[in-house]
Write a structure and sequence with these properties.
Number of strands: 0
Largest sheet: none
Number of helices: 6
Number of domains: 1
Helix content: over 70%
Strand content: under 5%
Structural class: mainly alpha
């Protein structure tokens, strides 16, 4: 029966991993499901405390990297704080809207990058920056968002593999 549970958890975690592309907290959902499974089955250790703590630590690292890379891209290109903040908001909104693009998975990433660009551009223009500086900051925000999402997807894949191995080969 443990293999049935392990397979179900793995399939659910694959869905959570894919949801990262849409701006969802997929890694945290993976950790939450693992913690709930462990809590519901006391005495049957599918996931060790170490596995749960390492997964949570990786989830935190992924969030920090995504946030910092998205905002830092705009700031490094000379953008304002307002532009960096709106780049984050625009990235999330763009990811949601980009999902409607007829390009599977990549539509969401394209939308997130375009939204980060637009948010940064609007924020910098509102801060009184000239158009050429605002466009450059928007470009930096889009690049930062791309690398932030990529880093989060990679760390999410590591957590997915870690939890899958732990589910199939419990302590």
């Amino acid at each position: 029966m443990i293999y049935v549970y392990a397979t179900l958890i793995t399939l659910l975690n694959l869905v959570f991993w894919a949801s990262i592309m849409f701006g969802m907290p997929g890694i945290w959902l993976m950790v939450l499901v693992a913690a709930i499974v462990e809590w519901l089955q006391p005495g049957e250790y599918m996931f060790s405390q170490t596995t749960l703590y390492v997964s949570a630590g990786l989830a935190l690292l992924a969030e920090i990297l995504e946030f910092l890379m998205g905002a830092a891209g705009a700031r490094q290109a000379g953008g304002s704080k307002r532009g960096a903040a709106l780049a984050i908001v625009g990235g999330v909104a763009g990811a949601i809207l980009g999902t409607a693009l007829p390009i599977p998975v990549l539509g969401t990433l394209i939308g997130a990058c375009a939204g980060a660009f637009a948010g940064s551009l609007v924020g910098d223009r509102m801060a009184g920056r000239p158009m050429d500086q605002s466009v450059e900051a928007g470009r930096g925000a889009a690049i930062g968002r791309f690398w932030g999402t990529t880093a989060k997807m990679i760390i999410g894949a590591v957590v997915l593999v870690l939890l899958t191995v732990a589910a199939y080969f419990p302590d």
